[in-house]
Design brief:
Elements: E1 9-12, H1 13-18, H2 21-32, H3 37-60, E2 68-71, E3 84-88, E4 91-98, H4 105-121, E5 130-136, E6 142-146, E7 149-152, H5 157-167, H6 175-179, H7 190-200, H8 209-230, E8 233-240, H9 246-254, H10 259-262, E9 275-279, H11 282-294, H12 299-302, E10 303-305, H13 306-315, E11 325-329, H14 337-344, H15 352-362, E12 367-373, H16 388-395, E13 403-407, E14 419-420, E15 425-426, H17 438-446, H18 451-464, E16 467-471, H19 474-484, E17 493-497, H20 513-517, H21 521-526, E18 543-544, H22 546-549, E19 554-560, E20 566-568, E21 571-573, H23 589-601, E22 604-611, H24 619-628, E23 631-632
Parallel strand pairs: 4-5, 5-7, 8-12, 8-13, 8-15, 9-10, 9-11, 11-12, 13-14, 16-22, 16-23, 17-18, 17-19, 19-22
Antiparallel strand pairs: 1-2, 2-3, 3-4, 6-7, 20-21
Helix pairs in contact: 2-3, 3-5, 4-19, 7-9, 7-11, 8-9, 15-16, 17-18
Length: 633
Amino acid sequence: MSEEARYGWGSDFPTFKATPPSVVREALKSFLGDPSPEQVRAWSDSIPPLQDEVAEILASDLAANGYSAILEYELPMEARRPDVILLVGSGIVVLELKGKWSPSRADLDQVAAYARDLRAYHRECADRPVIPVLVPTLARGYQQVIEGIHVTGPDALDSLISTLSTTHTGTPVSRASFLSESAYRPLPSIVEAARELFTTGSLRTIHRARAATGPVVDHIARIVHQAALTNSRHLVLLTGVPGAGKTLVGLQAVHAHYLDELAAPRNGERPSVPAVFLSGNGPLVEVLQYELRQAGGGGKTFVRHVQDYVRRYSKSPTSVPPEHVLVFDEAQRAFDAAKMQLQHKSAHAKSEPEEFIGFADRIPSWCVVVGLIGTGQEIHIGEEAGLEQWRLAVENSQRRGEWSIHCPPQLAPVFPHADTSDLLNLTSELRYHLASDLHRFVELLLADGTRADLRSISSRLEEQGYHLRITREVETAKAYLRDRYADDVHARFGIIASSRDKDLPRFGINNDFQATKQVRFGPWYGDDEYHPDGRSCRCLRDCVTEFGAQGLELDATLLAWGTDFERRGDVWSNHNARKYQKASMIRDAMQLRRNAYRVLLTRARDATVVFVPPIPRLDETYHHLVQAGFVNL
């Protein structure tokens, strides 16, 4: 095994069968470095019967001489390791061994996630069957198929593998190709992407995501070059469903290498920071800056809070931003003039779009403002005015004749003179791996879609490897998450809940105002559970609300459902929500509740686990979610 290998053992079937179990075990120990006694014991118990099953396959299947066994394969760029991967027939079999009589729901979901990620991100698995198999090592005989996952005792593995190899005939995957470091390219989280861009200057080439986001990154690059060549100003509006990669596009746009060359000299020198990523999402800014500091860099120059930026340049009309490219995240949520007047205690304050176009007008030579636009995510007071503010801001610009607007065709009614392109609308959800139906499921759930439609979509989500789970016991939800990610120290899971609920604290969910305002988002999203500060989301202690979760993501969420959004007479009601202090400024309080739960329901990449408190007023809500497709734990 080479020094760079990311697996404990890899060989063809004949070699694996003929190698003494102690030699295989020592190779695994050497790979992991310091495995626990429990892990070594598990290998000692599982390797001999696994070799016996391989021997039986070799005796019955002539093609098995070309099959491969890979043990403790570490997914590149991650710390997760499926126990065993078998390259048999034309397929890939993922085995997860558990020392028990029968599997738990977390066990099933864990092996399903391994198979899903290989399908989604491994080059050699894209067009081949990937079959998840759960092996309770104390069981005997073939058990059953549960949602596409084979459950079998170790003694029946040979017959199952023989059946699978016969079903999926063809040339086996080359072991060398499968184990290639470049073969597996997972989609990074926003935090991971920011860290990669800062430390390496580029973002990994993601096999599936490149086709979705690559063209728009190139399109924005062409607009930037055009602006620099013609000394012009451009507003680019990029829309997309939640999880489609808008933020990834924005992060790449401000970190593009070509910007250093295109920047216009000022006082004989080029700007050292030609672009900036701006967000009104305080938690997102805090998390990104925290992670970039952890990576050893100056996170504040790379990403800034919108309010800080506005405050700096609005107070001094002669101050000139050093950047040429301004990326405004969640541009549809820009504050209107009334909110800005309240925020800055000034009767003359402008809307955020007006402020930004004004700042851009001061930038010499050329400028590109990129607005990233999500849908249905307005959750703050003052965010409901919509995109028309951006059109008005350009129309009122002192340099109106220098501005061009670029947007997707569906925004043409708001921007009738814009240059439209389908490239500026991202329609493929990337955050949720292959679960392309999550956004549609959440929309129907919040809009009183039929239960038949909801069940149909939730079934597809289950097939795609996205797990909707539900329980009325909060400790059951916590146990599921800890069990599910026990072998994945990098996984992030945590408690989220609505800010308008007023009943959850008595069930141990700390979503009251005093508790949530003390959460430090950087450590909550970034630290591991063994950090001495104990602030990690994995500790399942602190809770963040929709304001702390929007724009960020976890591998799994424990969503504590509140009484502020409940079923009453087969429709959603916000009757029990805590009242807004500035209710007169709100156009549609019920829509803000729907938007809040849309955010809460779309924060997880792997699984959403809903805890519905065991109180009578939430019985109808619980039954509705179960009938929609949430599986009871």
